[in-house]
Specification:
CATH topology of the largest domain: I/LWEQ domain
Helix content: over 70%
Largest sheet: none
CATH architecture of the largest domain: Up-down Bundle
CATH class of the largest domain: Mainly Alpha
Order of helices and strands: HHHHHHHHHHHHHH
Number of strands: 0
Shape: globular
Distance between the termini: 26 Å
Number of domains: 2
Structural class: mainly alpha
């Protein structure tokens, strides 16, 4: 919508699922960019927790914090695909969500260090209640899907009250209460999208592009985190050859992960409500592991520069484990539905080999080599097999 066409408030009617030239808007890109701050704030304490051998606490905190980041981003993304009016009220409401993301980012350090989730919860609730306002607008204008929009608004509001009540509980209850509340959050779209009137009219090309852009942001965060760590190590003037070699291997790892995700377009996979939900939810593991690779590379820098007490095996798994999670979920979400033949087997085999790399010398370098091999297999074998999904839904 051009500036001359945009108004203060327009009816929030559903956009067509087959709309042409549906691409990410400048507001969506700005939304993603601001979420980078929260992702960086989550990856940094994960890096330090592993380097200081507080692995369980670091992984637990990272998984919980990243859920809040991912879920707020995902809900905005799917809503915008169906109802983006780009009027002034929509823009202001989205900017409120961005402000909530920045509050959440500011609360990540206390959450990791003191199990203090107050600021994170407040920022998260701000983002989610802004979505309630958006759904109420949609309910008013989209008569056909009014029941769906009202279920979203009611469900989100209910869960936010539970998150706020969680703040009154003792700190030791933070982890036990997180999982049931997260499950309730995940159930809201599943229930709402099955309401009378049908599901929302998300645009599958637009959704695939939005997820792809966020994957790029996560991989970019890995590059940034590893670069900062390597620069810090090089400033000491020690272990320079090892750090340069590690930097090259780390870059190859990130480049290969990018290639494997973007080898084929994913829009043809979003063929039903069930597959769309599984695909959308499964990306939690792709996004979280992509960002965690950067934290793992930073841990490897600490190990190579002798700034950590952890073993080489632990340092190796800091990279290998998130890389393996990334590979297995790319396989589950992109390869198995698309492909037939040897490539379907290659991914699990390489994933197992990736998990063995920390047991030998130079784990990041070996990991990089394995990923290059998988890229080569993808290029040479994967494209020889007709894509059943693209041929039907291209």
């Amino acid at each position: 919508m051009s500036t001359s066409e945009r108004s203060w408030l327009t009816p929030m009617r559903a956009r067509s699922a087959g709309e042409g030239h549906r691409v990410s808007t400048p507001l969506e890109l700005f939304f993603d960019l601001c979420f980078v701050v929260a992702v960086a704030q989550a990856a940094t304490p994960l890096h330090h927790a592993i380097s200081e051998n507080h692995i369980a606490a670091g992984v637990r905190g990272y998984a919980m914090v990243f859920f809040a980041i991912w879920w707020a981003w995902m809900n905005f993304t799917w809503f915008a695909s169906a109802y983006d009016t780009d009027d002034d009220v929509y823009r202001i409401t989205t900017l409120v969500q961005i402000a909530g993301a920045l509050v959440l980012a500011a609360g990540i350090a206390p959450a990791f260090s003191d199990d203090n989730y107050y600021a994170i919860t407040i920022g998260y609730v701000v983002m989610r209640l802004a979505m309630v306002a958006q759904w109420l607008r949609a309910a008013r204008a989209d008569e056909q899907r009014r029941a769906t929009a009202l279920l979203y608004a009611a469900g989100i509001t209910f869960v936010q009250l539970l998150w706020l009540l969680r703040l009154a509980l003792p700190a030791e209850w933070s982890t036990p209460t997180f999982l049931p509340l997260a499950v309730i959050e995940l159930l809201v779209p599943i229930v709402a999208e099955r309401a009378r009137g049908g599901p929302t009219t998300y645009h599958r090309h637009h959704i695939a592009e939005r997820y792809g852009l966020f994957t790029i942001i996560m991989l970019g965060e890995s590059v940034s985190a590893a670069t900062i760590a390597i620069r810090t190590g090089l400033d000491t003037g020690e272990h320079v050859p090892d750090l340069i070699s590690l930097a090259v291997a780390g870059i190859v790892v990130v480049f290969a992960l990018w290639w494997l995700y973007f080898d084929r377009s994913a829009h043809g996979l979003l063929t039903s409500l069930r597959t769309s939900i599984l695909w959308g939810y499964g990306h939690y593991f792709i996004f979280a592991s992509a960002a965690a690779v950067g934290a793992g590379l930073a841990v490897s820098v600490d190990y190579d520069s002798q700034h950590t007490e952890i073993s080489g095996v632990v340092a190796g798994y800091a990279v290998a484990l998130p890389a393996a999670i990334y590979l297995i979920f790319v396989w589950l979400l992109h390869i198995r539905p698309h492909q037939r033949g040897p490539l379907v087997i290659a991914y699990p085999v390489v994933t197992v080999l990736v998990l063995l790399t920390p047991l030998g010398p130079a784990p990041v370098h070996v990991l990089a080599g394995l990923l290059v091999v998988l890229v080569a297999i993808t290029v040479t074998l994967g494209r020889r097999v007709p894509d059943p999904v693209e041929s039907q839904f291209g």
